[in-house]
Design goal:
The structure holds 2 protein chains of 2 kinds. Chain A is mainly alpha-helical. Chain A is built from 8 helices and no strands. Chain A has a single domain, classed as Up-down Bundle (de novo design (two linked rop proteins)), CATH 1.20.1440.20. In chain A, α1 runs antiparallel to α5 and α1 packs across α6. The longest helix of chain B has about 50 residues. Chain B contains 10 helices and 9 strands. The two termini of chain B are about 25 Å apart. Chain B is of the alpha+beta class. A 9-stranded antiparallel sheet of chain B has the order 1-2-3-4-9-8-5-7-6. Classes of the chains: A mainly alpha, B alpha+beta. Chains A and B meet through α1 and α5 of A and α7 of B.
Chain lengths: ~180, ~325
């Protein structure tokens, strides 16, 4: 009789700890996504400054600048699903890279102190975004491991948890930025 | 690191001529040590013979002579050793440091302070004895650094049933320790330590590590890196901000190059670096020829570790907000 009770108690403890473990991993993922959000906001805050600094010099890239401003408004507009957020963020990354490439053609702009400071801040924000993405991927991998390996996968089924996607570098970013393409787009 | 040719030039033209003084000091020191051993053995023999041959017990009178001679010789040898060592550090080690970079400062008896050692949080064990020497301070382009040899120890005491206490000393860390200006702003703390648990225990070791209490366990993507190191940090994102894929590669390269236990920590605005060595560094030989070219090469390599670190980790790339 006692053995049965002990076995049931043990089973209960194990079940509880598995459940808690999965909940924790899921929360870790949400936390990490929040971390990315924080860094992205920093980047959005920098964009107006960037636009105003380069606008005076960059006469040929009006379209790029407008595009970035539009994307920014969309991103900050709120009520976007996580996937939409990621998509817009990727587009902004791509466009901003294009602007930085174009800057190479404007030696005066390159030497401008305002721009240099801005560039440093942007580098830092980009590094932080990169780090935040990697932290997110790590949390997602941990979560996916938890719900796909035995015995977690049985628990996950009952909790209706499904695997999440890691942040992938979009194809768009992986290609080398061809400045000509950008100006034609 | 300077080229072999430059080193050989230094060796042939500047150091070898000075070596005569150094060599004669060394030989006289060696003689003293040999004499000490002889006296010790002789005294021991006298005692032994005196014990077993009562007829020769008059020999016992020589024992105090032996003991006095022994103590006196040890004292003289100690003095001579200090002079010899000092001569070596001033003429040979200093020359090597200046050859690598003439703007670097060399203090033969200075070392990284105990506070800095503690600030690094690499070695958390309480220290009972702390020693070091060969302090080098300098700047490489935009990055300043301080580097020295360190030896930190803790003691354990056992008391046996007769009330005798025996103290045993254990080494916490022995080797080269440096702190360097880091090129990014850091708010928290990140530790990169050799991964002993995973080596011994595999993935169960990873589980143990997460309970270690040195901060959050940070799991990174570089497989080679993860095999060699375990990372703890106060913030998951900041740890990755610091440990970019290229920095992780750099750390793997450093371990592979020197094949020793290597430790890093990132706190405040500095990166702390430690590399363990079993032997004493930058010390002159006593029993064999004092200065061989290979010894110089080794010292040159060891001082150049700081250049390798700064170069591999791109610490002179200042494109973020820290100058």
């Amino acid at each position: 009789m006692i053995i049965v009770l002990v076995a049931v108690a043990l089973l209960l403890i194990i079940t509880i700890s598995m459940y808690n473990g999965l909940i924790r991993k899921k929360n870790e993922v949400d936390n990490a996504f929040g971390g990315i959000d924080v860094q992205l906001k920093k980047r959005y805050d920098l964009i107006p400054n960037l636009i105003s600094t380069v606008k005076q010099y960059m006469t040929h890239e009006r379209e790029l600048l407008t595009k970035v401003t539009e994307l920014r408004s969309k991103a900050m507009g709120g009520s976007l699903s996580n996937d939409e957020k990621v998509d817009i963020d990727n587009q902004i990354t791509h466009t901003m890279k294009g602007i930085m490439v174009a800057v190479e053609n404007y030696p005066e702009l390159k030497a401008n102190q305002n721009f240099l400071n801005l560039q440093r801040t942007m580098n830092e924000v980009e590094s932080q975004i990169s780090a935040a993405r990697r932290a997110y991927n790590s949390a997602v991998t941990d979560f996916n491991n938890g719900i796909q390996t035995f015995p977690g996968n049985m628990m996950a089924g009952m909790m209706k948890l499904s695997a999440k996607m890691v942040f992938e570098i979009p194809e768009v970013e992986r290609e080398n930025i061809n400045a000509k393409d950008l100006f034609n787009s | 690191m300077k080229s072999i040719e430059e080193l050989r030039e230094l060796y042939e033209n500047k150091l070898k001529p000075n070596l005569e003084t150094l060599e004669s000091q060394r030989k006289s020191l060696k003689k003293k040590y040999v004499l000490i051993i002889v006296v010790f053995i002789a005294t021991g023999l006298i005692f032994f013979i005196g014990n077993n041959q009562p007829s020769l017990s008059f020999l016992y009178y020589f024992i105090p002579v032996g003991v006095i001679a022994f103590v006196y010789l040890i004292y003289k040898a100690g003095l001579a050793q200090n002079i010899y060592r000092n001569e070596f550090k001033e003429n040979v080690v200093r020359a090597i440091v200046k050859l690598i970079d003439s703007t670097w400062d060399y203090d033969p008896y200075g070392h990284i302070s105990h506070e800095q050692y503690r600030t690094s949080k690499i070695f958390t064990r309480g220290v009972d004895r702390y020693n070091g020497d060969d302090l080098v301070t300098g700047v490489i382009e935009k990055t300043d650094f301080r580097l020295s040899e360190l030896h930190s120890e803790y003691k354990t005491q056992t008391t046996d049933k007769n009330g005798h206490t025996r103290t045993t000393w254990h080494t916490i860390f022995k080797g080269l320790f440096a702190h360097i200006d880091f090129n990014k702003e850091i708010k928290g703390e990140t530790l990169v330590l050799p991964d002993t648990a995973e080596k011994w225990f595999g993935s169960f070791g990873k589980k143990l590590q997460s309970m270690s209490g040195r901060g959050k366990l940070i799991k990174l993507e570089n497989v080679e890196f993860e095999k060699l190191f375990v990372v703890y940090g106060s913030d998951q994102i900041e740890a990755r901000y610091i440990l970019t894929p290229s920095i992780m590669e750099a750390m793997v390269t450093i371990v592979r190059k020197y094949n020793k236990n290597v430790f890093f920590s990132f706190i405040g605005s500095r990166v702390y670096f430690a590399i363990g060595f079993k032997e004493d560094l930058f010390e002159p030989r006593i029993f064999k020829s004092g200065l061989r070219f290979e010894d110089m090469q080794k010292m040159n390599e060891q001082f150049s570790i700081i250049q390798t670190i700064i170069h591999e980790m791109n610490l002179n790339t200042r494109i973020w907000t820290k100058d």
